[in-house]
Amino acid sequence: MNSTLRRGIYGWIAFAVVMVILPHVVGTGVTRSFVFAMYLAIFAVSWDIMSGRTGYISFGHPFLIGIGGYTTALLTYHLHWPLFLSIPTAVVITMIGGTLFFFPALRIRGTYFALVTLAFMELIYGLVQVIAPNVTGGTRGLSGLETIVTGAIPNYYLALVVLLVLGFTMWLVIRTHIGTALSAVGMDEDAVRASGINVTRLKLFAFMLSAFAAGLGGALYVHYLGSIAPRALFDVGFLFQILVACLLGGAGTISGPIAGAFFLTFLLEWLRPYFPGPERFLIYGAVALVLYVYQPNGLHELVRNGLKRLNQLKLSRNTS
Questions:
Q1: CA torsion, points 167, 169, 172, 173, in degrees to nearest 10?
Q2: Is 210 within the bounds of a domain?
Q3: In contact, 38 and 160? CB cutoff 8 Å
């Protein structure tokens, strides 16, 4: 095991230990804020494994989250399926449905791919409202959905376990030859294809991982809230939060989007008493823009540079 991988594993362990202890030293309100931050982190990680590595920027990621959320909501609300069946089914439907819609779009690149994915999100947003509103709940959505656990702390630990398992797994994947190949696709797809690698299969693998995480996160999130509405999942503001979390933290790193999601959630909470309206979104957008201009690789690179400087200081003191 090389030193970089070892340090990364130690970092994940330290993060897990701190997060396990945290609910016992903060109030209920802060604990609930951490729950929302962890779900945003799950969505950011699911976006990052595909778009952050390959450069295929998706503006339709809430489409995948919505498939997972609506599938389990409809199964439990109308057909009274138990959660241990509806949630795995929602994940499978997300992977299948997302592949049927998005996979053809992977044949195009750049701005066209982003626009096509955005169109998919807007399409499903409209369909949910007008097709069988007595089933989907229309613009109001569905409420009174069954919850997995009750209480702030049980929901906190449920979200934490999912985030740790998904995040650590994705982090390991990007450190394999598959992760290297995905990064190469983002830099020069034609060169990767010319080297003999099946780029289509590689992109499909990344997309399936992304859809799995998005579907699982969407299903759990809906049963945490106990309700679902198209405006909550298919809104551009929701997409904006996912993208900003990734850019703030450092796209393509997995750990960066998690940090970005936490930073973004608590920045919004801190601004809420002073700016209760939508203007606070303008402020966090400005913060994200400034950080992205001065440090395009986000918080991940800031922390990394800081650790490098500390090591250099230690070495200089030891040699002096």
A1: -110
A2: yes
A3: yes
What's the pLDDT band for 83 if we cut at 50, 70, 90?
Answer: very high
- How many residues can be counted in the chain? 320
Both tokens assigned to 173:
């994947």
Euclidean distance between CA atoms 289 and 164, whole angstroms? 28
Say if CB 182 and CB 54 are below 8 A apart. Answer: yes
pLDDT digits (tens, 9 = 90+) for 63-78: 899 999 999 999 999 9
- Which tokens sit at 299? 């918080």
pLDDT at 271 over 90: no
* Residues spanned by the domain of 137: 3-237
pLDDT per residue as tens digits for the range 193-226: 888 888 888 888 999 999 999 999 999 999 999 9
Kindly state the DSSP code that residue 2 receives in the 8-state scheme.
-
For 88-141, the pLDDT digits (tens) are: 999 999 999 888 877 777 777 778 888 888 888 888 888 888 888 888 888 888
Residue 89 inside a domain? The answer is yes
Contact in structure between 12 and 171 (CB atoms under 8 Å): yes
Domain annotation covers residue 43: yes
Position 318 scores a pLDDT of: 67
Q: Give the position of tokens 């656990």.
A: 149
Contact 219, 91 (CB under 8 A): yes
Domain membership flag for residue 278: no
Q: Distance between CA atoms of 245 and 231, rounded to whole angstroms? A: 20
Within 8 A by CB and 6+ apart from 153, the residues are 23, 31
Residues 45, 171: Cα–Cα separation, whole Å: 9
Question: What is the domain count for the chain?
Answer: 1
Residue 308 CB neighbours (<10 A) = 10
Report the run of H or E that residue 271 belongs to, with start and end.
helix 255-271
Count helices and strands in the chain by DSSP H and E runs: 15, 2
